[in-house]
């Protein structure tokens, strides 16, 4: 193991136990080779570490995805981590407590790490907008982030009231020290290992639920109109899914179906035909809900899931088609719809 890999392992190992760090490192195809000679943690190291930890966290929360990845590990192959997806919410007056509204809460993290907004995808049926953040220097090997934003102003007043009660309690997880560290990375500086480890731990924590547990009545009101809003109410900004880039998504879907795993009934195909996606249905999770009187009530609700994508080369550019598709995304969102 080279010196750089050891330093990267130490950074990830500051957050994950050693066995989980090694398992995540060994199952993901390398994201980037660092050519730096200076000591310290640069933006590229930080980005690789963040993606590695978020992938490991997703597997901790999705038993079906973890079973698939175990199969990959036993076969001697690796996962090509294509992208991670998360959901955010924007209230009419931006009132999500101290948390920046919608996708702005993550733009401030991703841009200093070398990401840029690559495209915007309207999702009108869901009353949402998706944004793809792509790494500027390693677009094909460092995972993209698909950040969706639900627009509460496109719903009625009753829905908006419930959303304000649920999401108005949000707290900003990014402290001043982490904001300063991200700014330094964005300027091309390196961080001492202890400073980087603190900032990484805080950044990972941003991919979670920042608001109080919802009242059951508010959750049910949101759920009646928007399964996506209900999902954000329980899961917050956690990775909704992580995606494996595979050679033939249709063949993989058939193989997973034969194993009895809860794979989507059909493959989503982009308008160009070059991007094809499918996914497991979300694994259920138990979440607590507030009641008007008495103790909280625990219910089983949809959690996160694992996705698959096949990307073909775009003949116009001669490079891999890294785009997304609004129709595909809308279909994939259905994986977290409650029964």
TrEMBL record:
What residue ranges carry the coiled-coil annotation?
A: none
Give the Gene Ontology MF terms in alphabetical order.
Answer: dioxygenase activity
User: Keywords in UniProt for this one?
Assistant: Dioxygenase, Iron, Oxidoreductase
Q: Which SMART domains match?
A: DUF1338
What EC number(s) is this enzyme filed under? 1.13.11.93
Q: List required co-factors.
A: Fe(2+)
Recorded hits in PANTHER family, A to Z, give: 2-OXOADIPATE DIOXYGENASE_DECARBOXYLASE, CHLOROPLASTIC, DUF1338 DOMAIN-CONTAINING PROTEIN
Q: Which family does it belong to?
A: Belongs to the 2-oxoadipate dioxygenase/decarboxylase family.
- According to UniProt, the name of this protein is 2-oxoadipate dioxygenase/decarboxylase
